[in-house]
Predict the 3D structure of the following.
Amino acid sequence: MDMNIVYIILSVIVGYYIGRKTKKTSLPSSPEEISEAQEAAREALSERTEGRKEEIVEMMQNAKERHEALKACGLAEERKGIHREDVERLLGVSAQTALKYLNSLEDDGKIEQIGVSGKDVYYKLIS
């Protein structure tokens, strides 16, 4: 028998053995484990969403303070509030995701949308 064939067969056997020993054992196997993993994923997503919404509110508070300071100095900006594009840049998300966060904050009663559609739409904090 050719030695190359022996090496190939041994390599396959060793590879199979190593693969079996190192397979992922962290995958949930019971319905209860699957349910727990799903709940943990939902909680993590919810925490991330709340964190991002807090970032948006903080950005809006900073913008409001900056606008008031410029106004006190007689240098008021023309631009008011925060636009969807600002949220996109802040969080590095798509337009749809930015709108989802803004709509959620609006539903929470933390911000108000000014304008109906287009580039004239902006958001401001509810005092």
The radius of gyration is 27 Å. The chain has a mean pLDDT of 85.
